[in-house]
Amino acid sequence: MESPVILLWPLLGGFPPAPYLDTLSYLQILLSGLEKPEILIPELLGLGYILVLVYLKRGLIWAEIKRLLRRQGKGTGTGSA
Fold it and tell me: For the chain, N or C: smaller number of CB within 10 Å?
């Protein structure tokens, strides 16, 4: 049996080890990247896409939430039917 071959990752070698960061420091690093327009603009476009998708599918989303709540109210839990 042959071992699978990785073609595209890691293209430039392994990732360097990252220093341990607590949650607040990690969030600060992520949010500081939004000061750069080349990061902010694609992130805003992605957020806009998600918001439009949720808006267009809101009827289906609410129907599914109501269905799950009715199922929980009957005491059957969230298992598959």
Answer: N
